[in-house]
Design a protein that fits this description.
The complex is a heterodimer of chains A (317) and B (386). Chain A has 317 residues and is an all-alpha fold. Helices cover 74% and strands 1% of the residues of chain A. Chain A has 15 helices and 2 strands. Chain B contains 15 helices and 14 strands. In chain B, strands 1, 2, 3, 6, 12, 13 and 14 form a 7-stranded mixed sheet that branches. Chain B has a 5-stranded mixed sheet with strand order 9-8-10-7-11. In chain B, strands 4-5 form a two-stranded antiparallel sheet. Classes of the chains: A mainly alpha (317), B alpha/beta (386).
């Protein structure tokens, strides 16, 4: 009895294969979910994480000094090599550059994002978005080569400063050890400027998103209660915008940590981690050391993300 | 189950042996072209008239053989080795610091010179050159060769061309009265250590360097010390030929080891540069067209090797790249190279050039040498200021 009513309650099966498949998925939503998720999960699991693991595994092998062939025995000696003076230099150089780039990106991005979130309306808001996004549309390489010309010894910037009789300022800056050099385009300063320029949009957008979410009346309440603008910034605005700043810093920090093109074209030819990986695996055929170098940014970013999560950065993404 | 395992093992083994046999044996006879050919080459080596329509040695070949040529350019020998290890290419124009590595790694196959009629015309100095001939077997055909010259700015040197490499190795005042600090460059490849060794070979004979590619610990250390001085002078190391060209134009660089390619390019843009063959002699490159072990288009590849040895192509490439042909006939009557071209590019200085080789631990001139992968890591250190 109940079977008959059941059958009548259910729609007549659709004809054709497509119809039957559609019915099957409708009746078994879990299967549907599995089929939809399987390809991306397999991609992530095998192609992405799998190759990453294979790479990490390589770092526990070593290279035979005599033949230059990889010696497939477990060893930590390759990690020991990371502590060589020259290799440690590369790591310190890259991490400090990433940290400084992140800090300055945040300092420059904050006022821009604040203006866009609080004051820009209508047409100006559109112009803001366009202005921030536009550099992302042109090729990364073109931008870097353009910067090389701008920063060159006989480039636009030098010409401009010469017109303003400010060359002494540039010379004074370039004579500072470490950050100076023969010209901006062969100094760390040049590398820094280009890094900040290229990653800036990735800092502005998350900060702007987090500032949009700060209720305006909180700021007003703060000043009503008698706090100075500085106090309002320190105790109200900054803590509330912090997740956005941290989110942006994840981008700028990790992108700087991994980039190997900018320091090759602009800078003093001293290697960064990305270039070291490239040189070790391509040039020297020393895949274990290249893999060990790759582990460095992974570990650093792991720690960084863990800290960022504690500061609530992922609420603002 | 055991049976299946056994037969599987046997099958795998036989496949392994088969490929090994194939790898060791050269092609016996030529078939029809496969319609395609991919070449890993130095920038400017395979031109189809895109930059200058007079320099085109691809279009004619494509029409004649039906083999569509695609080119992947590489900036360093190491990139070439990496690309060939990756696979998917037919030919590579490998320099001496890559060619033996490719042979040792079984990335390239022996060449049957009987299938290349122009082989007979190849310069006798190159026919059995050690950078591509192993135990009497030829792993390729010579393409072109040339010296690493000293390029300099004629305005700064005011008619007094630098006679020695010391302008890029030691701090000094240049003829314009200013220091060379920050105004010289060096090659961003570990093989540049050989240039330092070559300099020491001439100026410090007491070190006993016999070949700049075979250095014992003491000689190697002396070369690195010299390069550490150079680090203080060089603002940037050049990696990409076009970046060096740009640095000579916009960065105030006035002297550097370079290739005739950049010299010719800058001269064609009316820049005040010239090149010199310093008293210490130079290092140099002799490139070989080599065929990948797993090449998918071997017939087209053989046709290209034959084509590449014709006097016309040899002359044109030499004119474009500032190189020297591997076929003597190319030195005469080529419109682009002109009859003086060979002499200008150093054709008669063959004996003064120490051609790029891969440094190995088991070297000929002494009991033990510093191998290449240490050159790599130490050169990174030197550039990093260590």
């Amino acid at each position: 009895m109940s079977a008959i009513t059941g059958e009548q309650a259910i729609l007549i099966e659709k004809p054709g294969l497509a119809g039957r498949i559609s019915d099957f998925f409708w009746k078994h939503p879990h299967v549907f979910l599995a089929v939809m998720l399987a390809p991306p999960l397999l991609w992530l699991g095998i192609i992405y994480l799998g190759s990453l693991l294979a790479l990490l595994l390589q770092s526990f092998f070593s290279i035979d000094d005599y033949s230059g062939l990889v010696n497939y025995e477990f060893t930590l000696s390759t990690y020991g090599q990371l502590l060589n003076e020259a290799n440690l230099d590369i790591i310190i150089r890259t991490v400090s550059m990433a940290a400084i780039v992140t800090l300055f990106s945040a300092l420059i991005a904050f006022p821009i994002a604040y203006y866009a979130a609080r004051y820009a309306r209508g047409k100006w808001k559109a112009i803001f978005y366009l202005g921030v996004m536009l550099p992302l549309w042109s090729s990364y390489l073109v931008k870097i080569y353009a910067w090389k010309l701008i920063l060159a010894k006989e480039g636009i910037l030098t010409w401009f400063l010469a017109k303003l009789n400010l060359l002494w300022l540039l010379d004074a800056w370039l004579s500072i050890p470490v950050i100076g050099g023969n010209s901006l385009s062969v100094s760390y300063t040049g590398t820094f400027i280009v890094f900040v320029y290229v990653w800036m949009p990735f800092m502005i957008l998350p900060i702007q998103a987090s500032l949009e979410r700060v209720p305006a009346n909180l700021i007003e309440a703060s000043s009503d209660l008698g706090s100075t603008p500085q106090q309002t910034f320190r105790h109200v605005l900054f803590p509330l915008a912090l997740p956005g700043i941290v989110a942006g810093s994840i981008f700028t920090f990790s992108l700087t940590l991994g980039d190997y093109i900018i320091p090759q074209i602009i800078g003093s030819s001293r290697l960064f981690i990305g270039q070291a990986v490239y040189a070790q695996q391509g040039t020297a055929g020393n895949i274990p050391l290249a893999a060990a170098f790759t582990v460095v940014p992974i570990v650093i970013m792991g720690l960084y993300l863990w800290m960022a999560r504690k500061m609530g950065a992922f609420d603002a993404l | 189950m055991k049976q299946i395992l056994k037969s599987c093992t046997a099958l795998t083994l036989s496949i392994a042996f088969c490929t090994q046999v194939m790898a060791q044996e050269a092609l016996k006879e030529l078939g029809k072209g496969e319609g395609e050919l991919s070449i890993v080459a130095w920038a400017g080596y395979i031109e189809r008239g895109d930059t200058d329509k007079n320099y085109d040695w691809v279009t004619g070949f494509e029409k004649e053989t039906g083999c569509k040529v695609s080119v992947k350019t590489a900036a360093t020998s190491d990139e070439m080795v990496a690309l060939m290890n990756e696979g998917g290419f037919d030919l590579v124009t490998a320099s001496g610091d890559a060619s033996l590595r490719l042979v040792a790694g079984k990335r390239v196959q022996p060449i049957n010179t009987d299938l290349i009629p122009s082989w007979k015309t190849v310069d006798k100095r190159l026919q059995d050159a050690p950078w591509y001939t192993v135990k009497g077997v030829h792993y390729g055909v010579p393409y072109v060769w040339g010296p690493n010259v000293l390029m300099y700015n004629t305005d700064v040197f005011k008619g007094k061309p630098p006679k020695s490499w010391n302008v890029v190795f030691e701090e000094m005042n240049l003829p314009d009265g200013k220091s060379n600090k920050g105004r010289v460059q060096a090659y961003d490849g570990p093989i540049h250590i050989a240039d330092a060794a070559n300099y020491l070979m001439f100026h410090k004979p007491e070190l006993g360097i016999k070949s700049p590619y075979e250095l014992n610990e003491d000689q190697y250390k002396a070369a690195l010390d010299l390069l550490r001085v150079q680090r203080k002078l060089a603002g940037r190391y050049w990696h990409d030929a076009m970046i060096q060209v740009d640095d000579f134009k916009n960065e105030g660089v006035v002297a550097s080891g370079s290739w005739p390619f950049q010299v010719n390019l800058l001269k064609s843009e009316k820049q005040p540069v010239a090149s010199e063959f310093p008293e210490e002699g130079t290092t140099g490159w002799a490139d070989t067209t080599m065929l990948h072990t797993e090449s998918a288009h071997p017939n087209c590849a053989y046709m290209w090797m034959e084509h590449s040895l014709s006097a016309k192509v040899q002359g044109d490439v030499s004119a474009w790249f500032g190189a020297n042909p591997s076929v003597a006939a190319a030195c005469k009557g080529n419109e682009l190279l002109t009859d003086e071209g060979c002499a200008t590019n150093g054709y008669n200085d063959f004996d003064k050039i120490k051609f790029w080789r891969t440094p190995v631990a088991k070297c000929e001139s002494q009991s033990e040498c510093v191998p290449y992968h240490r050159w790599v890591s130490d050169y990174i250190g030197v550039i990093g200021g260590r």
